[in-house]
Design a protein that fits this description.
Blueprint (H helix, E strand, L loop, with lengths): L32 E6 L5 E7 L2 E2 L1 E6 L5 E7 L2 E9 L5 E7 L2 E9 L5 E7 L2 E9 L5 E7 L2 E9 L5 E7 L2 E9 L5 E7 L2 E9 L5 E7 L2 E9 L5 E7 L2 E9 L5 E7 L2 E8 L7 E3 L1
Antiparallel strand pairs: 1-2, 2-3, 2-4, 4-5, 5-6, 6-7, 7-8, 8-9, 9-10, 10-11, 11-12, 12-13, 13-14, 14-15, 15-16, 16-17, 17-18, 18-19, 19-20, 20-21, 21-22, 22-23
InterPro entries: MORN
Protein name: MORN repeat-containing protein
Keywords: Repeat, Signal
């Protein structure tokens, strides 16, 4: 079994805040109602005013090309709005005090899209993340990264269902492979690690310990003909002390190296003589 190469970087990278205290940019002391206001450094606001603050439905344009269209409260983005970025990225949804907060959609210029709940400028709670290559994650986010329970689907058919932490498979989960294999058990940093069960398309089943994506430690491998290997594994194969038990009752017990018997005894059913393996 080859090492799993399934780690994905999916953490949210936009974490921006937009304080817009009007008094810092313009003198609104004598201006009321609606109009066009500009600041010396190129900021521009189009919309209504209340108590010398941006208020209601308006437009705010930044010198770097960002543009916000939506509602304001006390000179902050607050309520429903759309924030456009110069590179083509766009956030559309709820704002609270200048931050992404509530339901929203963040669409990046590279085709990556977040749809769901946001808090303090980051995805938080139930979110669906899609990639331009067809990958999709649906599940819990915390502080901009998948954390909690979720489902991660690949365009080639692989699917992971289970726990995430820091954007990686961590905890209990199920990984379904395109070749028919299925792993159920513990994951650490995106790979099977700890106790688990691997089902193979040919009918084999391994139950036991994994480390860094491979069978390492103590386990049981059951074959389609009901033969079993019970013992130690290393580097994804028989390594160390173990026993192979055959359906007819014959049993080999001894030491294995790299998947092959090294020395041990063949124990035959009652009525047979025991053979020594050199």
């Amino acid at each position: 079994m080859k090492p799993l190469k399934i780690i994905m970087a999916v953490c949210f990278i936009f974490a921006l805040s937009f304080p817009l205290a009007a008094e810092e940019y313009l003198d609104f002391t004598k201006i009321k109602g609606q109009g066009l206001f500009t600041s010396p450094d190129g900021k521009k606001y189009i919309g209504p005013m209340k108590d010398n603050n941006f208020f209601g439905q308006g437009i705010y344009i930044f010198p770097d090309g960002r543009k916000y269209i939506g509602t304001f409260k006390a000179s902050m983005f607050h309520g429903k709005g759309v924030l456009y970025y110069p590179d083509g990225s766009k956030y559309e949804g709820d704002f609270v005090d200048g931050r992404y907060e509530g339901s929203g959609k963040m669409a990046y210029s590279d085709g990556k899209t977040y749809i769901g709940q946001f808090k303090d400028n980051k995805p938080c709670g139930e979110v669906t993340l899609t990639f331009p290559d067809g990958r999709e994650y649906t599940g819990d986010f915390l502080n901009g990264c998948p954390r909690g329970r979720g489902v991660y689907k690949y365009p080639d058919g692989r699917t992971y269902m289970g726990e995430f932490q820091n954007g990686l498979y961590n905890g209990q989960g199920v990984l379904i492979y395109t070749n028919g294999r299925r792993y159920e058990g513990t994951f650490v940093n995106g790979k099977p690690d700890g106790n688990g069960t691997m089902y193979f398309p040919g009918g084999q089943k391994y139950q036991g310990q994994f480390s860094n994506g491979k069978r390492n430690g103590y386990g049981t491998l059951t074959f389609p003909d009901s033969s079993e290997y019970i013992g130690q594994f290393g580097n994804d194969t028989f390594n160390g002390h173990g026993a192979i038990i055959y359906p007819d009752g014959k049993k080999y017990e001894g030491r294995f190296i790299a998947g092959s018997p090294a020395e041990g005894n063949v124990i035959l059913p009652v009525g047979w003589e025991e053979e020594k393996v050199e």
